[in-house]
Structure formats: C-alpha cells, structure tokens
Amino acid sequence: MGIINATPDSFSDGSDLRKNSSEQFRIDIDKSLYRAEAMVQAGATFIDVGGESTRPGAIKVSTQTELDRVIPVIQSIRSNLDICISIDTSSAEVMAAAISAGAELVNDIRALIGEHTVDVVKQGRAAVCLMHMQGEPGTMQENFTYADVVSEVLAFLRDRVRFCLDNGISRDRLIIDPGFGFGKSIEHNYQLLKNLPRFAVLELPLLVGISRKSMIGTVVDRPVDQRLAGSIAATSYALLGGANIIRTHDVAATIDAIKVNSAYSNSQ
C-alpha cells in the first residue's frame, strides 16, 4: 500500500505535493498522479490517500479542507490508473465522498467509532480497515497506559470486528491494523511487532504501517528521510508475523522485501 499524503504537515512527506505557486497549501494533482503512477509501476496494490495528518501532535482540519485535498486526487487516480484506492479518514462525510469518487477501501484510524461512519461504509459497500489507537492524534503520545498492550489491542479489534458484523458489514470486507505509533511507546510497538501472530485468531487480513515511524527512528537514531533500512528490517519481521498488507512510503524497496519473504516462506 503506497501512501499519498495530501497534507502540508505529515511527519514524512506531506509538503512534497504542494502547488509551488500557492501561498496556502494546495495539492498539486499532477504531482500526486505522478507519485501514484510510480508506486503502481513499483508494484503497489493499493494507494492510500489522506488529507489530514495523524502524526503525534497533529491539529485537526475542517471537513471541507479534507475534502478539497483528497477528492481531486482520488478522481485523478481513478481516471488514470487501475488500482485499489484507499481513503485515510475518520469523517463520515469524507468517506462518502471518497467512495463516490472511486475509493474502494476506508482506512479509519478510529475504527468506525465516529458518528455515521459505520452507516456510510455499510451503504457504500467499501471495505474497511479497523485500526487501534489510544487517545487522539494531538495528544496520543503524551498519556497512554496498558497492562498488556498486545491483549488490549487484540481485544479492541475483536470488539470492533463484532460491531461491524452486528451492523451489517460482512467479514469479507474487514481488515485489521494494530496501529503502530498511535498511542504507544517504542516498547509497546515492538511488543506488538513480536506478537503479530496472535492476531491471526481474528482470521482477517492484517495491515501493518511502520514505514519511517519513530519506532524505527528512535532505534536507528536517524531522521525521517534516512529510515529506509530500518523500515525494511521491521517490515520483514511483520511479514514473518503474518502481515498481509504493508503500508509504506517506499514501495519499490518494500516490494523487494516482500519477494524475498515469499521466497523464504515457500522454500522447502
């Protein structure tokens, strides 16, 4: 899953897609399409488009701002590329508009807790990724507590899966994500990574997003743009732990890791 951050303040690459001549942030559709094309050529199966940064300390934006950022990008990708488009949002209004524009997957860091979100997904027939997060993006890394992070994240996801099933969203439309970096310490993140096989009990596709995150940067002591090797190392462990979808900024290198993992797993 390649990432298109249509934001000025993503922790990694949000401002890269800015219109050069604009004083206020405006997304450059040609730049975003070029990036999506490169990701598809490198082997991406999904393109995840987001219009609101969810990095630690991020400030919430208006629904209209989010719509203005993501819908033109989704429309452009849908018109030009044969790829599954994911919308990274927790807003029911943005979900609905994105699905109408061609998104086939909703990637919600709040696991459809928001008002009307479950109804939008049910009616729109899109698949949905349910992610665990303790707290809110603005403050999630300031105050979090777990007695047993793996058990608690697993229990949360099990509850949200049941919620979706009870509300008419079929199991074959569900994906789960333990939420690396969302209200968790470095140690919590590596405990989750080491215990990914436990999530197989839910019998659902497992999405992992660890690309360039602080759980990598803190360990390797490198800035965001120098975390590729560390991200690939963590990705390899995630694949061995049962990850089915890897959300990444670096598609080509991640595809190489997936191919090596596949060869290793299939060897006698």
Report on the architecture of this protein.
The chain is globular. The strands form two sheets. It has a six-stranded parallel beta sheet, with helices on one face. The protein has a single domain, classed as TIM Barrel. The chain is built from nine helices and eight strands. Strand 5, helix 5 and strand 6 form a beta-alpha-beta unit. Helix 1 packs across helix 2 and helix 2 packs parallel to helix 3. With 268 residues, it is α/β, with parallel strands linked by helices.
Draw up the topology in text.
Blueprint lengths: L1 E4 L23 H14 L3 E5 L12 H18 L3 E5 L3 H10 L3 E4 L8 H8 L2 E5 L17 H18 L7 E4 L8 H9 L12 E3 L4 H7 L7 H13 L4 E3 L3 H16 L2
Parallel strand pairs: 1-2, 2-3, 3-4, 4-5, 5-6, 7-8
Please give the CATH class. Answer: Alpha Beta
Percentage of helical residues? 40-55%
How many domains in all?
1
Question: In which order are the strands of the major sheet placed?
Answer: 1-2-3-4-5-6
- Overall, the morphology is globular
Order of SSEs: EHEHEHEHEHEHEHHEH
Q: Roughly how many Å is the radius of gyration? A: 17 Å
Name given to the CATH architecture:
Alpha-Beta Barrel
Intertermini distance: 29 Å
Provide the CATH superfamily.
Dihydropteroate synthase-like
* Tally of DSSP β-strands: 8
Mean pLDDT: 92
Q: What percent of residues are in strands?
A: 5-15%
Individual helix count: 9
- The secondary-structure class comes to alpha/beta
Major sheet attributes: 6 strands, parallel
CATH topology: TIM Barrel
**Which stretches of 5+ consecutive residues score pLDDT under 50?**
none
